[in-house]
Amino acid sequence: MKKRTFAFALLIALGTMWVFSSTTSCQNNQAAKEAQEDLDRAGENLKDAAEDVGEAMRTERDELAENMRQQGRELDQAIAELDKKIERASEKEKVRWIERRNALEQDRQELNKDLDRIGENIGEGWAEFKNSVASRMERIADDLKTKN
């Protein structure tokens, strides 16, 4: 987000420089040429910064998606183990294991919804989305460790 703010500030500064340079008459063509070159370099730097920010966000998104898929596989495995326990359990135990299975299945569905959303253009809400998913994944991981 800081890179976006920097890029936006740089864009405003470049625009101001362009407006200023276009409204004043240059007495020296060399100075005007150098100013144009500076603007061109600044524009390239801005373009490079925007590409870097985009690449960093894609990398972060891809890593988060892989972590989410891994946790989904862990949930699937835990659900499969519960299905086996339910088959062998007494009626009293079945109720407990079915409740546990339903809770894990709900977690799996929420994780799938988040995984579907990660491919969308979340834009400004990325940090909030990422934090929400991280909290959910941490809760699920703790739940899987303690209740199996």
Word description of this protein:
The chain is built from four helices and no strands. The protein has helices at 2-23, 29-88, 91-118, 126-146. The mean pLDDT is 80. Helix 2 (29-88) runs parallel beside helix 4 (126-146) and helix 3 packs antiparallel against helix 4. The protein starts with a helix and ends with a helix. Helix content is 89%, strand content 0%. The longest helix has 60 residues, at 29-88. 5% of the residues are buried. The chain is mostly helical.
Could you give a short description of this structure?
With 148 residues, the protein is mainly alpha-helical.
Topology:
Elements: H1 2-23, H2 29-88, H3 91-118, H4 126-146
Order of helices and strands: HHHH
Mean pLDDT rating: 80
Q: What class do helices, strands and sheet pairing give? A: mainly alpha
Helix content, binned percent? over 70%
Strand content: under 5%
Flag low-confidence runs.
none
Rg to the nearest angstrom?
Answer: 27 Å
The number of helical segments is 4
Major sheet summary line: none
User: How many distinct beta strands?
Assistant: 0
- Separation, N- and C-terminal Cα atoms: 39 Å
Q: Tell the overall outline.
A: rod-shaped
Task: Name a few traits of the molecule.
rod-shaped; 148 residues; 0% strand; mainly alpha; 89% helix
